[in-house]
Structure formats: structure tokens, C-alpha cells
Amino acid sequence: MELEVVHRRHQDCTRCALHKGRSRIVLGEGNPHSPLLFVGEGPGADEDRQGRPFVGKAGQLLDRMLSAAEIPREEIFITNIVKCRPPGNRTPHEEEMETCKRILREQFVSIQPRLIVTLGSAPTRAIIDPKARITRVRGQWFERKGVRMLPTFHPAYLLRNPAGKREAWEDFKRIRNAYLEVMSNMRN
Ligand code: SF4
């Protein structure tokens, strides 16, 4: 199913309580056929206002890291585990993530990414391993059904803990190399 159709089906979603506090749903944006998918935790205040993912301060840091890694933002797809802003930017509850994963699953099926980057603890636990600790697993590749997945720090965490930027940059170099490899295989 085309991604646009998936998004149209869910734009008025009220399946969990998070819909009550949202201004706008943030389904994600980017290339609907990208081999590279970034998944964050949930929209913040700026994202909720604009209806777009990663547009606040954390988003600007993500943009800088993508740009340094020479990965054009418009070539990839960026979304979150939950599509509505949790009150006060709290971490989404497990049942909210579980409920919202239905939309993410449909996005996966439509986009068919080859590489997934999970930004921070919540998406890493929701997608890769419920027991994963981001400080232990970041920078490692995991593979499921031919899709390679790499957890790294959430840019909001890096704003609070700039010392983590060096490790995050190592991760972004891994992501860039894997992305270039996938793109080259797709061309051949
Ligand atoms: S967070 Fe997800 S499941 Fe909950 S209301 Fe928003 S779109 Fe629906």
C-alpha cells in the first residue's frame, strides 16, 4: 500500500489516550521509498505544532549530523514510535507504543527499508529488544528478516549530554557506510 494511503487511514487516529493532547498528528516525512528509516520516540512541542518530525532543537542537531554524514534528509524517511505528543514530553507508556506500532508496521510494509536507525531507548526497546539498554547496544548492528538495525543516542539526549556526541558520530559513520552500500547495491 502506498505510504500516502497508510497515512490517510491513520490521520485521525484515536486508538490511545495520546490523541487527547495533540495539536497535530506527526506521522513522519521523507522519501516513501527510502532504504533508510529513522525512528525516534515521539513528537515534542515544535513537532506537535508543525505536524512534522524532528523540527525542534533535537531535530536541528539531527539535521547537522545527517549533513555531516552526507545523508540528505529528504532522501530518507523519519518517524517516531508514537505519532502524538506525550504530555510534557514524557516517555511514551508501553501500551501507547504497542498500540501505535500498528501504524509503524504499516509504514515498514509500505516503505520496505533495508536499514533502520532507532534513536534512543524507547524505539530501540520497542523495535529491537525490550530489554536493550541504549548505552550497551548503541553502535551495534542487529538483523531481522534481512533488515539491518542500528540503535544510537537520541539527539535530545546529546543536547543534554554533549560528551555522547563522539560516540554518536561513530554511529553516523557506520550508518553512512551501510547506506552507501545499500544504495550501490540498488543501482547494480
Ligand atoms: S499515539 Fe498513535 S495510537 Fe495513539 S492516538 Fe496517536 S496515532 Fe493513534
TrEMBL record:
What reactions does this protein catalyze? Hydrolyzes single-stranded DNA or mismatched double-stranded DNA and polynucleotides, releasing free uracil
Q: Name one GO molecular function term.
A: uracil DNA N-glycosylase activity
Superkingdom of this entry's organism?
Bacteria
E.C. designation(s): 3.2.2.27
The UniProt entry, under InterPro entries, shows: UDG_Type-4/5, Ura-DNA_glyco_family4, Uracil-DNA_glycosylase-like, Uracil-DNA_glycosylase-like_sf
Protein keywords: 4Fe-4S, DNA damage, DNA repair, Hydrolase, Iron, Iron-sulfur, Metal-binding
Q: Locate the Uracil-DNA glycosylase-like domain: which residues?
A: 27-173
| This protein's record includes keyword Oxidoreductase | no
Enzyme class, first EC level, given as a word = hydrolase
* Signal peptide extent: none
- Pfam families the UniProt entry points to: UDG
Q: Name one GO biological process term.
A: DNA repair
Q: Which Gene3D superfamilies match?
A: Uracil-DNA glycosylase-like domain
Q: Which PANTHER family match?
A: TYPE-4 URACIL-DNA GLYCOSYLASE, TYPE-5 URACIL-DNA GLYCOSYLASE
What protein family does this chain belong to? Answer: Belongs to the uracil-DNA glycosylase (UDG) superfamily. Type 4 (UDGa) family.
What this protein is called in its record is Type-4 uracil-DNA glycosylase
